[in-house]
Amino acid sequence: MSNGVPNIDQLRADLGRVVQTSDVSERALEVVAAVESVAAPLGIHPVVVGGMAVYFWTESDEFVTYDIDVVMRVPHELATRLAELGFVRATDGRHWTLEGTDILLEAPSSRLDSDATVSEIELRSGRKAKVLSRVDILIDRLDEFQATGHETPAQQALALLAGLSDDEVADLDRRAGDHQVTSILRAVRRIAADIAAGRTPPDSGELHAIARAALRGEYPSRES
């Protein structure tokens, strides 16, 4: 990069090497770091969210995904630079595929929550990529579980909860009320304690009942 202008040819060559790596999260973050290189001069910084953020923080093959969700604005100038890197934009305007690869990049949103925190990950290449923090992605999964009762966000919430540091636990407890996930957080902690004690995890019907009860706790005027 010279005078803030990225070297597109070098980035394309780097991407060609990145797609060969077998480490799914490293490959994804290197792709996002390359996008950061062309987006940062425009004041745009992509942040990995969604399933890839879950996989990064849990390192669980149960949650492996090959799609890369990022939060970022995509003005015309950035779309042009992505095309120069080899990304082909889908007709829906939200998805890009890296030509000749199975890499799928999606920008489902342009803004994070106002209180969201982001972790900057230094990669082996020396580049850096931004990932939504473990606490924030946990709050997101708790919210999804509470809203849907589905098994996948419940399992992801359990896995994310298990790896929290003491500081992250304090941060989660402080912010849960603002995001109206206090009830479902308590429920997930009870599930985790039951599993640790050797009890059978709740089945699909039980998970839906747990989510409905938590939703009523947060929104007492809402009908289930």
Question: Could you explain the architecture of this structure?
Answer:
A 7-stranded mixed β-sheet has the order 3-4-5-2-1-7-6. It has 2 domains: 8-132, Beta Polymerase, domain 2, CATH 3.30.460; 135-218. 34% of the residues are buried. A hairpin with a 5-residue loop joins β6 (118-122) and β7 (128-132). The chain has 224 residues and is of the alpha/beta class. It has 9 helices and 7 strands, in the order ααβαβαβββββααααα.
How far apart, in Å, are the first and last alpha carbons? 55 Å
* Beta-strand residue percentage: 5-15%
- Number of strand elements: 7
Please give the count of helices.
Answer: 9
Helical content stands at: 40-55%
Secondary-structure element pattern, one letter each = HHEHEHEEEEEHHHHH
What structural class do you assign from the helix and strand content?
Answer: alpha/beta
According to CATH, what is the topology of the largest domain?
A: Beta Polymerase, domain 2
Unreliably modeled segments: none
CATH class of the largest domain: Alpha Beta
- Radius of gyration from the alpha-carbon trace, in angstroms: 19 Å
Q: What number of structural domains do the residues give?
A: 2
Order of strands, widest sheet: 3-4-5-2-1-7-6
Q: How would a crystallographer describe the biggest sheet?
A: 7 strands, mixed
**Chain-averaged pLDDT:** 93
CATH architecture of the largest domain: 2-Layer Sandwich
Give me the oligomer status.
single chain
Shape: elongated
